[in-house]
Amino acid sequence: MSSNLLFLIIYTLLAIATAGGMLFASYLLGPRRNRELKDTPYECGMPILGTARERFSVKFYLTALAFLLFDIETVFLIPWAVVYKSLGVTGLVEAVIFILILAFGLYYIWERGALEWD
Amino acid sequence: MQINWQLVIDIAKAVIVFFGILTCIPILVYAERKICAYIQDRRGPNRVGPLGLLQPVADAIKSFFKEDYTPSHVDKVLFTLAPAMAFIAPALVFAVIPFGHLMEIKGYKILPQVFDMNIGILFVLMIASLGGYGLILGGWSSNNKYSLLGGLRASAQMLSYEIAMGLAVISIIMTAGSTRMADIVGVQTQGLWGTCIPAWNIITQPIAFIVFLCTAFAETNRLPFDLAEGDSELIGGYHTEYSSMKFAMFFMGEYLAVLTMSALIVTLFLGGWYFPGITEVGNTSLLNGILSIFVFGTKVGMLVFFFIWTRWTLPRFRYDQLMKLGWKILLPLALFNIILTAILGLR
């Protein structure tokens, strides 16, 4: 089973080819009728108000920032999780300190209201 | 020239597995519509073919022959790429899931898994989050306000749930001591406390199971967390501007995601292909292999039913409730579970 990666590559290429094939087939098979109104964004039939390229709530930005921090900390925990049995109590104490820092960070953004939506 | 039959078998396996899960999509579509109908006290599809069994085929043909319209206000490259990504990513996840016990026929090994990756679970986390890009790109490139909101919701939802999901997976890695999928299943085939009760992670890791189940619903964008789609408030959200097969591919991706998520939950928490008394560990006969695939399929089928059942039972969450659940309940719960697992595991 040395050429393992080959199967994943074949599988991936198959998935990409199927997706591409379906897109191409519907492009070929479908009829084409152009109407002017088809080119306007759908807003339930009402005249369009402004553009969709708007700025949006900073809440999304804060969530993304918080995610970045916590996700990196999650990634750091994975190597420890694999070998934690052989690291013993020392590893456990260190990991718990790390997790507590993580938990404190969560408490902080919670208290500062970064997780509130109103 | 000597033909390497082992290689031929393994390549054929990759092809069969891919088309196998592709075949599951129409079955899931039919199951969803039929179960939904019975929950709502209707009959569901019953016109096309016997018992309406050909309904998904008719749907597929119809979407192929509908007009594939790309409006001029969209970003064309991303608009085409988005449904493809939503379809490819969940299909790829299935490549590392072991769905049966190793079989040996005339010296040839058949392992029911496309690629036995030693970092399998990390691969799953990586590829599964790639699927979110399909929704985000679709929402943004459509240049439509509803789509933009849907895409943003999809991204914020993913950001809120992926951490809890990752942390739940970490506690599973801790019980297995490995990130390889086969090892995670292997740990679950042992008896618990010297009895015949298998040490499935749903029994040894109930908190991680609940956290993972909630995040799985969010990851697949299914009710009660289908805010990115939100038909009644965002008119389809990220796929408002889509038509024809591009539109259908988002749904194929969704059903594939349901299938692979169920397969993942079975592998991580429900013992994979193992069931005490039916499948044996270390038995490489053909019968045992087929039984193990059957056991795996049954478990996945039951979980898929659970996904559908939930969808037609629960109402949609409100947006702030969803964020609150992710950050304020699931995340602390998963962190607590890791410390608990570590302390109990070292005892």
Please describe what this structure looks like.
The complex is a heterodimer of chains A (118) and B (347). Chain A is an all-alpha fold and 118 residues long. Chain A has a single domain, classed as Methane Monooxygenase Hydroxylase, Chain G, domain 1 (Up-down Bundle), CATH 1.20.58. Chain A has 2 helices and no strands. Chain A is flat, with a radius of gyration of 25 Å. Chain B has 347 residues and is mostly helical. In chain B, strands 1-2 form a two-stranded antiparallel ribbon. Chain B has one domain (71-344). Chain B contains 12 helices and 2 strands, in the order H-H-H-E-E-H-H-H-H-H-H-H-H-H. The interface between A and B is large, with 69 and 79 residues.
Which helices and strands appear, and what pairs or packs with what?
The complex is a heterodimer of chains A (118) and B (347).
Chain A: H1 4-29, H2 58-111
Chain B: H1 5-39, H2 55-64, H3 76-93, E1 103-105, E2 108-110, H4 120-141, H5 145-176, H6 181-188, H7 201-204, H8 206-219, H9 231-234, H10 244-269, H11 286-311, H12 319-346
Antiparallel strand pairs in B: 1-2
Task: Write a compact overview of the structure shown.
The complex is a heterodimer of chains A (118) and B (347). Chain A has 118 residues and is mostly helical.
The backbone outline of chain B, from C-alpha atoms, is globular
Mean pLDDT of chain B: 84
Distance between the amino and carboxyl termini of chain B? 58 Å
Mean pLDDT of chain A: 81
Total DSSP helices of chain B: 12
Keywords:
heterodimer; A: 118 residues; mainly alpha; Methane Monooxygenase Hydroxylase, Chain G, domain 1; 2 helices; B: 347 residues; two-stranded antiparallel ribbon; 12 helices
